[in-house]
Amino acid sequence: MKKIFLCGALLVSIFISPLTSFAKEQELVGSFTIIKGDVSVLRSEGENWENAEIDMPVFPGDKIKTEERSEAELILDDGSMLRLEQKTQIEIVSATVEERNGEEGKKNFSVKLGLGKLLSNFKKLMNNQSHYNVITSTAVAGVKGTEFSVECAEDKTEVVVFEGEVNVINPEGASVDLAQEQQTTVEKGRPPLNPESISGKGRFYRDRVVKRFAQRVELNRMQLKDIKQRREVKINQMREKIKDLKDRNNEKIKQKEQKLQQQKPNTNKPVPVNKPIPAGKK
Questions:
Q1: pLDDT for 69-95, tens place per residue?
Q2: Angle value at C-alpha 113, between 193 and 80, nearest 5 degrees
Q3: Contact predicate 159/177, CB 8 Å
Q4: Counting runs of H as helices and runs of E as strands, what totals does the chain give?
Q5: Per residue in 14-71, pLDDT tens?
Q6: Can you tell me the distance from the alpha carbon of 262 to that of 10, in angstroms, rounded to the nearest whole number?
Q7: How far from chain centre, in Å, is Cα 72?
């Protein structure tokens, strides 16, 4: 009996773990706009990676990864966008927006890049107290409304700016400011290299990927309201799926309990009593 309850509880926890995220809908970060190949999401309070889908919601604390020959793009609720190249993993560290009447409130968004390459197009920040940060093991790239890429290897980070400005700082506090068409490299335990013009590799990526990405960003910003509505539909579909899985799992547990009850020995049968032996008989 205990084994059944244990298995049932485990199955329920696996199926309904996304519900913990749905309970925090006011903290929604954004949703996926492009999925190519093998892309998966690990929810902040989940234990299992799930396949990413178009319009699927993203929350603070979620991790996203792309496998080989795979890529993904997601749009944030303020119209900023992120593009994950192949073999990339990120974690949405935090995302908050202060609501103010008549003016744009303070925004804070931080994403941690474990390995791989992330292309970002952040919407221009109107509030000077707002922060967009991309964090790696060797550097933090702080943004003031810009388009740039960050590529992270085990002990090295490369930052390339295509538009706007980026401040790059290492854990020891050494920093450089990058302007448009500049790049730097930060190795573990060393200060960022002085800014230099983007390399041939950077120009190739700009012409092949960044320009098309910028076009999709502008298009998606114009369609942001429709994107959010599609996301709500996706959230409701996920809720229904989770509810159905939970109901079916509970029904299986109930059926197993009933079967065990039927297999139990009948303990209400009278216990046989030895008859006394008459005197003189053995």
A1: 999 999 998 899 999 999 999 999 988
A2: 100
A3: no
A4: 5, 17
A5: 444 444 445 444 477 899 999 999 999 999 888 899 999 999 999 999 999 999 999 9
A6: 25
A7: 12
- Taking the C-alpha atoms of residue 123 and residue 162, their distance in angstroms, rounded to an integer, is 14
212 vs 36, 149, 209, CA distance in Å?
Answer: 16, 14, 6
Q: Helices 211-222 and 224-263: crossing angle, nearest 10°?
A: 80
Fold of the CATH domain 26-236:
Jelly Rolls (2.60.120)
Tokens encoding 220:
């998606």
| H-type alpha helices, the chain | 2-16, 19-22, 200-205, 211-222, 224-263
Torsion 207-209-210-216 (CA) sign: positive
Q: What is the rounded distance in angstroms from the CA atom of residue 39 to the CA atom of residue 74?
A: 12
> Any idea where the domains of the chain sit in the sequence?
26-236
